[in-house]
Amino acid sequence: MERSGQDRRSTVGIWVGHLPGPLALLNRFSITRYLMASIVSLAFDVALFMVLVAFASDPGWASAAGYSAGVVIHWLISSSFVFPGKTRQGAALQLQRIGFVATAILGLGITVSIVSGLTEVGVLPVVAKGVAVLVSFFAVYLTRKFGVFR
Fold first, then answer.
1. Residue 139 near residue 110, CB atoms below 8 Å
2. Angstrom distance (rounded) from CA 119 to CA 114
3. pLDDT tens digits for 58-103?
4. What domain of life (predicted)?
5. How far is CA 136 from CA 15, 34, 63, 72, in A?
C-alpha cells in the first residue's frame, strides 16, 4: 500500500481502511479507533489486574498496576493509529506526552477511586473494575481528543 502525502493514517489505519464494507467504518471515526485501542490496552490492564488480585494483592493497587500497563500500550496505539498525523515533534512531542500522562493520571484516579470505593462496600473487584472502565473511558477519550491530540 502506497501512502500519499495527504494521507495521515498509519500503516495499520490504511490496512483497516481497506477492509470490506462495514469493517472499514472502524477506521472512519476516532472514537471507534479509540475503542479498538482501548480494548487492546484493557486486555493487558485486566489480565495484570486479575493476576495480582489472584495473588491476594489489594484491588486498588492491582487496578493501579494494570491501568499503568495499559497506558503504555495505549500511547503506542493512540499516537500511531487513533490520532494519526496529530503526534508532534521535538519539544511539542514531550508536551504531548506529558498531556497524555496527565490524562492517564486522571483515568487512574477515576479507576482506583471507583474500584476502591465499590470493593469497600462489597462489590466484586471485577464488577467494580467494569464500572471504572466505562467511566474512565469516556472521561479520558474526551480529554485526549479535545486536549492532547487536537
1. yes
2. 8
3. 888 888 889 889 888 988 888 777 776 666 777 778 888 889 889 9
4. Bacteria
5. 29, 13, 13, 16
